[in-house]
Amino acid sequence: MLTNLKALEPQVVWAHFASLCEIPRASKHEAALIDHLIAWAAGRGIAAVVDGAGNLILKKPATSGCEDRPGVILQAHLDMVCQANAGTQHDFLRDPIPVEVRDGWVIAPNTTLGADNGIGVALALAALDEPDLKHPAIEVLLTVNEESGMDGARGLAPGTLQGCTLINLDTEEWGHFYLGCAGGVDVEVRSVCDFDALPSDYVLLRFEVSGLRGGHSGIDIHLGRGNAIKLLAEALRDLSAHTDVRLIRLQGGSARNAIPREAFAECALPAAIAVNIDEWVQHRHQAWRTRFATIDPNVAFSCRHFETSPDAALLQADQLRVLAFLDTVANGVSCVSQDFPGVTDTSSNLGVATLDAGEFKATFKVRSLRDESAGALADKLAVYAAAQGMKAFKDGAYPGWTPNPASPLLALCQQVYTAQFGEVAGLQVIHAGLECGLLASSHPDVDMISFGPDIQGAHAPGERVQIESVGHCYTLLKALLQALSTGR
């Protein structure tokens, strides 16, 4: 399947992306890929260094006659979000990504593809590979652990980079230049729960929410897609109002920055009630199908019956707290931007929830175009958790990237884009988090811009990237490097 990628145009870009699909690169597990790229660079006489934060920096001197031009930085991140559909056997630490070429797109049908941000990495490497491309000095900054903490960008020491302009290759809508992004902070809520014994006539059931589209908690949060954790809590609260359902174990979501697609709960019910529970499950299933008909039409709710007689379940008081918190806590868009029409300003995503062995945890990704608003919403989540007798911890805060409409790099990008494609590119501010905010903190005098190809479904199985838009990105990148080498 990866051979199919190497036949696509531009071949130099797709050959690099095929290599990225072959080498597992989950967050915090980028070492094998870094070793591969260091060996690749050595074979081409390209300097390679790993900095104190674990980032890989590749350096190529300016072409002859361009030595006096200011250097340029190309930036992308090495890691990817790792998610697979239920029932898909895939080890993200060992297995290559299974890909298909379908109707003008490259897609991973049952896992994440890693086009976010593997295509950005491939574009930067391809630029280094071009033998006849005229360019100023190039530094390629490939950061680590972007998806689960932005540790690479956070740990970049001031003065590490010498370039004056930076092109971030981590956005997902071709035809637009991005000049600002949201900052964010993680919130984890914890609580210790107690169990008590169950009568002998209780039986074990497993309720499961599945079939949701999920998606990127920044890019897709405004679409109103179902959150599997929220829907499961909603259903269990409804059931507990009518009968003595007892919660034993719960699991939903797998990443704080992805909208949860699946969630399940193991519960105990009196055997006489459990016999007829399927009718209630089917009613709830149909109600959700109607509610999400145009947004998440494949949402499903199911129940499995077991002959097992469970010994214990959560205390009623703790169960009420956990389900009430999950059902009513803030999730989704908090407010929209007044400065950038159609852009989400502030949001929270309940990405992961677990109840296991008496310990409850819930993890949120909070984002905002204004750092103060991200902090305020995180504080509100902490206060709400405390009201339910739970503890909350904030971590991983990173700044947003403030737009600069007067950027000289933006003006040059617009000029080059129009010359190449005969139209004016759009300008965007993105609710997702780019590393530009952190990079601007350590390198405040660097002028920055971001662009990328059309990517759909990032952070969810079925992620895809449009082939034609990748070619457009590479054409634009080469033209920009040429323009930066001459100053026009």
Structural class estimated from helices and strands: alpha+beta
The largest pleated sheet is described as: 9 strands, antiparallel
> Can you tell me the overall shape?
elongated
Integer-rounded radius of gyration: 24 Å
Low-confidence stretches: none
Number of domains as seen in the coordinates? 2
Can you count the helices?
13
Kindly report the CATH topology of the largest domain: Aminopeptidase
CATH superfamily of the largest domain: Zn peptidases
- Count all strands and give the number: 25
Calculate the mean pLDDT score and round it: 95
Going by CATH, the architecture of the largest domain would be 3-Layer(aba) Sandwich
The residue fraction in helices comes out at 25-40%
Instruction: Note the gap between the termini.
Output: 42 Å
What is the CATH level 1 assignment of the largest domain? Alpha Beta
- Tell me the β content: 25-35%
EC number: 3.4.13.18
Protein name: Cytosol non-specific dipeptidase
GO molecular function, one term: metallodipeptidase activity
Family: Belongs to the peptidase M20C family.
Summarize the structure.
This protein has 488 residues and is an alpha+beta fold.
What would you say this structure looks like, in words?
There is one protein chain. With 488 residues, the protein is α+β, with helices and mostly antiparallel strands. It folds into two domains: 2-181 and 400-486, 3-Layer(aba) Sandwich (Aminopeptidase), CATH 3.40.630.10; 185-398, Alpha-Beta Plaits, CATH 3.30.70.360. The protein is 31% helix and 28% strand. Strands 9, 11, 13, 15, 16, 18, 19, 20 and 21 form a nine-stranded antiparallel β-sheet that branches. A six-stranded mixed β-sheet has the order 1-2-6-3-7-23. A four-stranded antiparallel β-sheet has the order 4-5-25-24. The mean pLDDT is 95. It holds the Pfam family M20_dimer. It catalyses: Hydrolysis of dipeptides, preferentially hydrophobic dipeptides including prolyl amino acids.
